[in-house]
Amino acid sequence: MNIHILGLVFILTSCAGQHKKINGVSFVASNAAIENKNVQPVLNINGNFVALMPFGFIRDLKTPEVQYNTSRQWFGETKKGLEHYAKEFKNSNVKIMVKPHLWVSRGLFTGLIEMDSESNWKIFEDSYEKYILEYADISQKMNVDILCIGTELEKFVIQRPEYWNQLIVKIKDVYKGKLTYAANWDEFNRVPFWSQLDYIGIDAYFPLSDEKSPTIADLEKGWEPHKKTIQQFQKKYNKQILFTEYGYRSVDYTGKQPWDSNQVEGSVNLEAQKNATQVLYNQFWKEDWFAGGFLWKWFHNHEDVGGENNNRFTPQNKPVEVLIKKLYGDQ
After folding, report:
1. SS3 for 13?
2. Any residues with CB less than 8 A from the CB of 234 and at least 6 apart, and which?
3. How far is it, in rounded angstroms, from Cα 35 to Cα 17?
4. Angle at CA 213, nearest 5°, toward 211 and 215?
5. What strands, in cross-sheet order, belong to the sheet with 101-104?
6. H or E stretch covering 26
7. Does residue 317 come out as left (phi exceeding 0), alpha (psi in the -120 to 50 range) or beta?
8. DSSP letters of 275-329?
9. Would strands 22-27 and 199-203 be described as parallel, antiparallel, or unpaired?
10. What is the DSSP letter of 112?
11. Beta pairing partners, 49
């Protein structure tokens, strides 16, 4: 009888563990190595996952060659840096999503990358394949939990669907873990290959409110049409939704264009950041079809960043950090 009881407890515990959300942060690649003291602040907010982001670079929107893993890059953006960061987090039982990003000179939007000839498309596709397959191989060797095969590449994805179908097959030959793609908030419903991936990944910068300092009620109302669209899309593919990025700046009008990271000026609004974060959690974290998400963004030098005079995305050393600790701890 005791054996049966113990078995039941084990089954129930295992099932509960399977439904634990991805309480993640996007851990910014830096020019420095990290150690346990840099991991501890993630643990302090009950984070259980980090997105690690090796970078590839292209000169402009029509440049057909991806440069990556070069001596000019910051340590955390390279293969060696990725392996080092992943080891440090794994030592503290934090799971990993590898999420390669392209960076276009001057910060131009990657969704607009588009080659001007078939020959240049071929060069670009071969270059991107090499880049992604190398990090797929590293991800397999490091036994990471999720690999994101691209980030906000709308024109590339929509104009070259057959390329992506073939690339995903090649990735699966190398990497045996879970796969996703990080679609921009206004792109995800046009991505043609979700059926081949494990999660529908969305960078969730949906516009929610035009108010200077939006309330909980304003933001809840703002989510209504977006959540309905997401739910319908989720049912179509019967795959969990993963917010590959989510977050809000601590600034006035934070719900108006949440994707806007370029505006340096703007009055600090810590309450708006808290409200927007709370509402996103209210809307999604209790849904069975929602896998979780990765907060944008978290820096390694915790004690030196953020703070109550900072109007950027990071929650570090702001009131919203305390809120996130509570929300992530509610799982």
Report:
1. helix
2. 200, 240, 241, 289
3. 28
4. 90
5. 67-68, 55-58, 101-104
6. strand 22-27
7. left
8. HHHHHHHHHHTT-TTEEEEEEEEE-S-GGGS--TT--SS--TTSHHHHHHHHHHH
9. unpaired
10. G
11. 24, 95
With cut-offs at 50, 70 and 90, classify the pLDDT of residue 13. very low
Q: Is the pLDDT of residue 49 over 60?
A: yes
Q: Decide: residue 143, CB within 10 A, 0-12 exposed, 13-18 middle, 19+ buried.
A: exposed
Tell me which residue has tokens 């240049």. 120
Instruction: Return the number of other C-beta atoms located less than 10 Å from residue 39's C-beta.
Output: 22
Q: What is the pLDDT of residue 16?
A: 41
Q: Residue 82's closest CA among 15, 153, 34, 151?
A: 34
Residue with tokens 């873990």: 177
What CA–CA distance (Å, rounded) separates 175 from 177? Answer: 6
Q: What is the pTM assigned to this prediction?
A: 0.93
Decide if 267 contacts 252 (C-beta within 8 A): yes
